[in-house]
Amino acid sequence: MSWRGGWTRRGIWLEVAPGKEVTGSGQKEEAVDRWLLEVIGLPEKLWQRMRHEKQIRLAGDRLRLALFPARELGIEPRWHELTVLYEDDFCLVVHKPAGMAVHPDSSSSSGPLTLNHAVAAYYEMNGIEAAVRHVHRLDNDTTGPVLYAKNDFALLKLDEQMRDKQIGRRYAALVAGRVSPGLRTIDLPIGKDRHDKQRRRVSPSGQTAVTHVEVGEHLGTASLVYLTLETGRTHQIRVHLSHAGHPLLGDVLYGGRRSDFVRQALHGESLSFRHPLTNERIQVANPWPGDFQALYDWLKNK
């Protein structure tokens, strides 16, 4: 369960009215704890810490939880224009452009600009005192939405959704060849390529990987396909489609041609998740970027 009622943020405090099951109880502290664990879904370790640090307070009919303590960014802020797709006090979803990693490979501040650096700058500019913590990743040259958790509670709840495969991601891809409508699901394990540390490959000893495929349109010698994932293996879509004989246009690592596109033609066009507090299903759309749209238009009209 999660909280379906109203809530207010007051500084570091979340304020809610839990109702008579708590305020009318003769054992208020026990009733509060039961309500937090069963209704709010407060993770037990976080509940224990908040109790120890006196971050749970009941005053009259109002329950206050210190869910928004100030945190260090954890990464150097470096400005880059961001497209914010969704934001509230718990979550942030931003568009990741092509050619940018989500996070740095090392702690070096002189390395390439990443999305996390840009989010840190966004937080700093907007007075958001939160650690920069992404919930999932995209490949450097894949565009699409990336979800961030803005407090410990949100991170724990969203990480749980990732583990339980409750975060939905839908991708659009432009691939070589005419994909058969009969290609619906690719269920093939993926492992590391022993001959190239950058690559992954279909391997019987690899990890389970399942990709669902929907043919959108045939475009001459190419196809527009839509993809949803049951698993989130490194390069999963790229490996599976290449193995099926339909590499992403531009994906030179997996059999595509650089002359077709300057990057792999893959874009995350939507992201869905349950709000950490309210359990409401949040659906975030991310329109095709200009280069992907231009490639589609060229294929459509040639």
TrEMBL record:
The keyword Chloroplast does not apply. It catalyses: a uridine in RNA = a pseudouridine in RNA. It is an enzyme of class 5 (isomerase). Its EC number is 5.4.99.-. It holds the Pfam family PseudoU_synth_2. Residues 92-243 form the Pseudouridine synthase RsuA/RluA-like domain. The keyword Kinase does not apply. GO terms for molecular function: isomerase activity. Keywords: Isomerase. InterPro entries: PsdUridine_synth_cat_dom_sf, PsdUridine_synth_RluC/D, PsdUridine_synth_RsuA/RluA, RluA_PseudoU_synthase. Responsible for synthesis of pseudouridine from uracil. PANTHER family: MITOCHONDRIAL RNA PSEUDOURIDINE SYNTHASE (PTHR21600), PSEUDOURIDINE SYNTHASE (PTHR21600:SF71). Belongs to the pseudouridine synthase RluA family. This is Pseudouridine synthase. The lineage of its organism: Bacteria, Bacillati, Bacillota, Bacilli, Bacillales.
